[in-house]
Design goal:
Largest sheet: 8 strands, mixed
Number of helices: 17
Radius of gyration: 22 Å
Distance between the termini: 45 Å
Number of strands: 10
Strand content: 5-15%
Number of domains: 2
CATH topology of the largest domain: Rossmann fold
Strand order of the largest sheet: 1-2-3-4-5-6-7-8
CATH class of the largest domain: Alpha Beta
């Protein structure tokens, strides 16, 4: 099985001047977007840095994983130390090593790195621009990170027609287009970043939209119907494509008008969302026959669930969940799984006012009924499982 690491080894010595952007390049760009470039790449679009140089400096700052077996004392010390800079995913160390050895990517210029997290407006936004040797640019949006506010914003997609990060994405794409007025534009993103890529292309000016060669959404959610009914998406849908793994969950959320292609992942269930599990052969994602039965079931259930709830109910439910989670005093999902946070959440649930408790119970009943209707057999749970769920 070949993946993005094999692709970098196979095609890494061929410049974009000799071979233009192919589908596998979008996967690599999106994987790169999760690396910690803060302080290494300027927010100024006109102050570029060679990507290979930025990553080389990054590798000097990020603690490298030790291959030697750690003693208990060494592990205790490592747990107490909080590095100033660290990778988000397992495999990022290997990715950075391959990028620095790959002239295709190491020699491109990177600029305009923006990373904003605002709990007040519930926004997590990160974007960057790559300038290829051809003069073309790739505008890349990062997906959701480990922050709770980032995931809250994802859920807001279910009832808001425009999120703060979506508005930022349109502005960012417009600024990048203005900074490189003669460049053709490629736009891409993974997870929420894929949604931002599409939204920015949908609602940028017609002048900028005409310069866009393609938009790629890698397993990112769609939109509520209100967004797709607007005029903007119609001008760019023909150049837009979504890729989802066979057991996709995130990429099947909400509505999609653009064509989507199923790519084979070697992981299971939700882990298929990770880009380094996607199979690549000769510069193209390897297709699969279609999404799995479980992916289709989740898709049908969630769409049915959302359709049965009003916009107001969705908003109150999501705000209620966020209110409960916020009491845990955790900023990331990793922190949320710790013992003290779990206890705080349980206490907060018991203290919800009667209106929110009724809303939570109503949402659960609607979800259960949606799942029942989505199951081919019409059977939901065994009697014992049903009793457990109802309690």
């Amino acid at each position: 099985m070949s993946d993005l690491y094999d692709y970098l080894g196979w095609r890494g010595d061929i410049s974009f001047s000799d071979l233009g952007v192919c589908e596998a390049d979008y996967i690599v760009f999106c994987a790169i977007s999760y690396l910690p470039f803060d302080g290494l790449v300027s927010e100024d679009l006109q102050t570029p840095v060679r990507l290979g140089d930025a990553i080389k400096r990054m590798r000097e700052l990020v603690p490298q994983p030790s291959k030697q077996k750690k003693t208990k004392k060494a592990k205790d010390v490592a747990e107490k130390e909080t590095p100033d800079r660290e990778y988000m995913f397992k495999g990022d160390d290997r990715l950075t090593e391959l990028i620095t050895d790959s002239p295709r990517f190491a020699d491109i210029e990177m600029s305009g790195f923006v990373n904003r997290i605002d709990t007040g407006s519930q926004k997590q936004f990160c974007a960057m621009t790559y300038r290829l040797p051809t003069g073309d640019i790739v505008v890349n949006f990062r997906g959701t990170d480990d922050t709770i506010v980032g995931w809250k914003e994802d859920f807001n997609m279910g009832f808001m027609s425009e999120l703060p990060s979506q508005k930022d994405a349109v502005e960012y794409l417009s600024e990048a287009a203005g900074a490189f007025p003669r460049s053709k534009i490629y736009v891409c993103g993974h997870s929420k970043g894929g949604n931002l890529a599409m939204y920015s292309a949908f609602f940028c000016s017609a002048k900028v939209q005409r310069r866009i060669v393609s938009v790629r959404n890698l397993d990112g959610p769609g939109f509520i119907e209100e967004v797709l009914e607007k005029e903007g998406p119609k001008g760019i849908l023909g150049r837009t494509k979504t890729y989802v793994p066979q057991s996709s969950v995130v990429g099947m959320l909400l509505s999609h008008e653009e064509p989507y292609h199923v790519v084979h992942s070697t992981n299971y269930a939700l882990m298929q969302h990770k880009l380094n599990s996607w199979e690549i052969r000769r510069g193209e994602p390897v297709g699969d026959e279609g999404t799995t039965n479980s992916s289709q079931l989740i898709d049908r259930t969630l769409k049915q669930w959302v359709s049965e709830m009003s916009i107001e109910q969705r908003g109150k439910l999501i705000d209620g969940i966020y209110e409960v989670v916020s009491t845990a005093d955790a900023k990331t999902l990793s922190e949320l799984t710790k013992g003290k946070s779990t206890v705080a959440i349980i206490k907060a649930m018991s203290k919800l006012d009667d209106e929110k408790k009724v809303l939570f119970r109503t949402a659960y009943k609607i979800f259960k009924e949606s799942l029942k209707q989505s199951l081919p057999t019409g059977k939901l749970f065994s009697s014992s499982a049903r009793k457990t769920a109802d309690t």
